[in-house]
Write a structure and sequence with these properties.
homodimer, 219 residues, mainly alpha, Methane Monooxygenase Hydroxylase, Chain G, domain 1
């Protein structure tokens, strides 16, 4: 029984890593579609969503089965319930990538408003946060999880910067308004991806320490 | 043991209803702060967030305790893990209400751009969706949960309408841009509240039917 449980936990880890890889790919592809103005890439992200949704459900079912079959205690119980929440966050990150892909499809129909520099940078930061948050869980690395939480401010600042710059474009030229707003929305989707990564990292710390740093109650 | 478990489940239901009531109040207050231009009301919403965060943690701990102590099976297991997810969604609804309160504080510093009609309507719809999603869980009412899911489109359409109207304001007058964007963001926060309510309703149906309607796989 014990050995079976350990093997199933390993399987759960593997599935979660697979989910994370899919989600990271969705982020990078959606931003690539925007930057390189490739509609086919955007369509791929949207098509791929179904696969991610199905994997989310499979992971959820696996967690429920582990809880029901083995009735785990203490750290194992916390691990599995944490995975259920983290899994749900990963799926929402994929939703945001789909939103970016949809924005990309609109944006590339029109002439370029400005060269995109900050948005790809922000995307790289957000994607790395997602990857590191999952790595921190799998490797039980509390330091890495705390580092992810800290990086959230960096992404927020970059988003504010993008927002303010686009605001000046809109004020100078009413014809720029729709295109600027599309880019502002991309910035917000990326910001939300970073928020989800932060939620995941907080859940990892909660799992590792058995206490919560959510909502900065610790401070 | 059995009776203790039933009593603790009742306590969990009660706590969740309390959480929902706090969150619904946060929504209605944040929108009232915006419409009636009351900064003190906005500040109250922001101050209240801490109470909601603490209640989220208490409910989470209670769920973990129930899982560890009673090792529930089948429907009870699914109920408790569903509550853990729903609880997390409710806290994120409260985050959105805080975002609206913060936007309200900025908006009321400047002259009114236009009379607010659609935003309060959208807020009422979104708040009702949150209430009904929790009621559908507590009363095990699948019809109500399905109804909540359907109402999501109504809120999305209203949000699109608000967005398009504000776009015309921005194109006509560059000085209106910042104020219009603040209102667009309020619309998006309300849309996200409706999304969370939909997530909750989907979790309720999953709990009641033991199958998922998430991602429209059912269709």
């Amino acid at each position: 029984m014990e050995r079976h449980f350990d093997e199933e936990l390993k399987e759960l880890n593997k599935q979660l890593l697979r989910m994370s890889a899919f989600v990271e790919e969705a982020i990078s592809r959606s931003v690539k579609a925007l930057v390189e103005r490739k509609d086919d890439l955007a369509r791929e992200v949207i098509k791929h969503e179904e696969k991610i949704n199905i994997l989310e459900l499979e992971i959820d079912e696996l967690c429920l089965r582990l809880l029901a079959l083995y009735q785990p205690e203490a750290i194992d119980l916390r691990f599995i319930t944490s995975v259920m929440k983290i899994n749900s966050d990963l799926e929402r990150v994929a939703d945001q990538a789909v939103n970016i892909a949809e924005r990309a499809q609109e944006i590339i129909k029109q002439p370029l408003l400005k060269p995109l520099i900050d948005i790809p940078r922000m995307a790289m930061l957000a994607q790395k946060m997602v990857k590191d948050s999952i790595d921190s869980l799998v490797n039980k690395d509390e330091t890495l999880a705390r580092d992810v939480c800290k990086r959230d401010d960096e992404v927020d600042n970059l988003n504010d910067q993008i927002f303010r710059e686009l605001l000046t474009y809109m004020m100078q030229d009413p014809k720029a308004v729709t295109r600027a707003i599309e880019l502002i929305l991309v910035g917000r989707h990326l910001e939300r991806i970073a928020d989800h990564a932060t939620n995941i990292a907080e859940d990892v710390i909660y799992f590792l320490k058995g206490k919560t740093i959510k909502h900065h109650i610790e401070d």
